[in-house]
Prior knowledge:
The structure holds three protein chains of three kinds. Chain A is an alpha/beta fold.
Amino acid sequence: MKKLLILSGKGGTGKTTVASAFVKFFDNYIFADCDVDAPNLHLVLAKENKPITNDFYGLEKAVIDEDECIGCGECYNKCRFDAIEKMVTSFKVDEFACEGCSVCHLVCPVGAVKMIDDVAGELMLYNKDMIFSTAKLKMGRGNSGKLVTEVKKQLPADTSERIAVIDGSPGIGCPVIASISGVDFVLIVAEPSLSGMSDMERILKTANIFQTKVAVCINKYDTCVEIAQKIEEYCKDNNIAFVGKIPYDKSVSKAINAGKTIADVDCKARDSLMNVFSNTVSLII
Amino acid sequence: MKIAIPVDEKRMDSPVCISFGRTPFFMFYDTQTKEATYFDNSAFNTQGGAGIKASQMIVDEKADVLITLRCGENAAQVLKDSVKIYKSIEGNAKENIDAFENGKLNLLTEIHPGFHNHG
Amino acid sequence: MKIAILSGKGGTGKTFASVNLACVAQKAVYLDCDVEEPNGHLFFNPQNITKQKTTVLLPEINNDKCDGCRKCVDFCKFNALAFVSGKVKVFDEICHSCSGCFLICPQKAIEEKPKQIGMVQTGYFNNVKVVTGIMNAGEASGVPIIKDVLKMSDDDALTVIDCPPGSACTVMESIESADFCVIVAEPTVFGVHNFLMVYELVTLLKKPFGVIVNKVESFENQMKELCDKNQINIIEQIPYSYELAKLTSMGKIAVEESEEIKKMFVNILEKIKSEVKG
């Protein structure tokens, strides 16, 4: 099974909008949402379904036993992450700042610090009429790279010719790197703005490290035709496949709000997106 | 000679795991005694640096050869001085060992940049 | 006064709001804490830039003193150390700089050396001191850079903190010292869903906050419905406008180009000030 990853670098460009429409166009309903910080795909493609859930364990976190703590402050002095707070007669770990390094556990003279398993998120698998893998990272947690890998692992690994759509996360950091690895094709959704172009270039650099096949499309291109043109030229100059552009269309938000994808609504955006889809698929096969 | 292979299950005909750092088990096969022992991979559920931790175990167990589908650059750094890395082919662990003993496997040359999974 | 601008997802208009808010103040400091993808500087094009490195401490092993006991390798929770060919090897980009190996080594064979992971650039645009945090690609965490950015605020100026999107540890670090939080949200079903995540964060940290609903269109405004239902303070609703979108795409500062937008942001700033005082 081949994997198509949709990335953008910048948030709000329309990754999820494009990804959800592509799932409908492919009509095989095998897909994943790797944006574990802010997953959205389930809102348009799995609204009424209930997933199988599993706890995701991140790093262990430190916990100080108030009764055993003698208030010496060794943990507070040694913590590199400002994760220990001074209370009246003892010290307390800030679970959001704690990185699980266990230095406090090491230096505590009375063994008052324990390292415990921490549920950092929830993995979800929707398997009724679809195979949809997604997850949600708990607030303040930073281990998204591993959770992204777990999300991808829930997808079937067969030798069929089917193509699975993966909605990626914004940015260029670890979760993005984790989502790129092992993927057959990356489609970058670019926004025609200075910020959008700058972020598109950063994400292209990242995809390049993995030598993955890449293509670019522009969403809401008519909000700034000049920069849209610059992006097209950039792709041409750098030998990057350009697979089309989609106009800004009010029907899109209306559809999403109604729990539909663009594929379900007859509009200009749909036609353009269909074009982007065909161009992308012809490059994957 | 001792051969290490990441495997999904603890048996000779187990599929070779597609991941190195996060394989559930490692098989260590002794070509002389023709015996296989299985170890749980302590890096299986680790937050980050899985490749490093897994390859530390391979080195500590004094494996001469590792047969794997892929390997990250950090893991390769740990392995390079003492372990030769070969690319696995389609087939289960036993089939890969046979292929290796018949000189049919190639050295793994594409080392990927790794996932740098961490918090 | 420190105002943090955040949102559950990217692309809602955090930077748009932060940049314009900073520009309507008498004197302001703009802190770009989105160190992975800093964008504010594209609008300000700040001058007289000074740079400052952000470094973290990494372990350096003295092989003469090391006796191969491997206590450091076994201790490291991040697997950043390996024992290879009789030596301890450090994997820099995995290391979280916790100093555990340094503390545990019985031979005191480990020293800590600084390594650069990013930088903070400070420049000026009119009445705004523009501070941009930039993280080197592939580094473990942007938090040390954010900490350095936050140090650049001035007591006699309005500090506007442009936060990273989401609700991860980097966001928490960014809003920690804020007096007031502005959550920018889109009036769509995605917007509401992502607002709720950040709402949870802001409530947990007991921060006073208000909402700016951005890109409002003629059809149903799901954010307004939610806020009305839960008595959440809406500071302003900004309608979607092609002109505004285009201005912003071109990197122009809206309050400099439009009197109407300037009035709106002056009004937003006044509302926030009275919230903080009252």
